[in-house]
Amino acid sequence: MDSRRVVVDPVTQVELLVPEGISSWRAIERARKARDGELRSIRLFVDWGHAYPLWESGTDKYGMEPDDYGLSAELAARLLAWTDTFFDHLVPETGWDTLEREQVWHAEGETLADLLELEVYDIAEVQREFRPAGWSAA
């Protein structure tokens, strides 16, 4: 069940879906930052050669780390474990070792994306690029 609520942006009259724990004021301020191009865009996906699934185009670094965003130690550890699962159980030529592990990995990715969105709410948007084409979180 989705625990987000709707807040109307007083400037644009656009309905904003606001995660639980985020005040209406923060949501409206975030909408202003988005309009003004002030939000960073974090791309969430795993790729070979980088320990964390955090990427940001337009930066000198591109392959980012939890400290770059001030993420909690708990979220950083979960992101690392999620990446390790990918490296340990996905073979590029043949795919995942089991369908169940793939499904669990994608579900954990959705959870991690939700947690990441909360932790970077005031500074960035999260792009969920780990989903295969046509995949649904439902």
Give me the Rg, rounded.
16 Å
What is the approximate shape? globular
Count of structural domains: 2
> How much helical structure, as a percent, in the residues?
25-40%
Compute the average pLDDT. 93
* Element-level helix/strand string: EEHEEEHEEHE
Helical segment count = 3
Task: Tell me the number of strands.
Answer: 8
Portion of residues in beta strands equals: 15-25%
Which structural category fits the helices and strands? alpha+beta
How far apart the termini lie comes to 10 Å
- Can you tell me the residue ranges where pLDDT is under 50 for at least 5 consecutive residues? none
How can the largest sheet be summarized?
A: 4 strands, mixed
**Strand order of the main beta sheet, please?**
5-4-3-8
Layout of secondary structure:
Elements: E1 5-8, E2 15-18, H1 24-35, E3 40-44, E4 54-55, E5 63-64, H2 73-89, E6 90-91, E7 95-96, H3 99-119, E8 124-128
Helix pairs in contact: 2-3
Tags for this entry?
single chain, 138 residues, alpha+beta, four-stranded mixed sheet, two-stranded antiparallel ribbon, 3 helices, 36% helix, globular
Structure notes:
The chain is of the alpha+beta class and 138 residues long. It has two domains: 1-38, no CATH class; 40-138, no CATH class. The protein contains three helices and eight strands, in the order ββαβββαββαβ. The protein has helices at 24-35, 73-89, 99-119, and strands at residues 5-8, 15-18, 40-44, 54-55, 63-64, 90-91, 95-96, 124-128. It has a four-stranded mixed β-sheet with strand order 5-4-3-8, covered by helices on one side. Strands 1-2 form a two-stranded antiparallel sheet. It has a two-stranded antiparallel ribbon with strand order 6-7. The longest helix is centred in the last third of the chain and has 21 residues, at 99-119. The protein is globular. The model has no long low-confidence stretch (mean pLDDT 93).
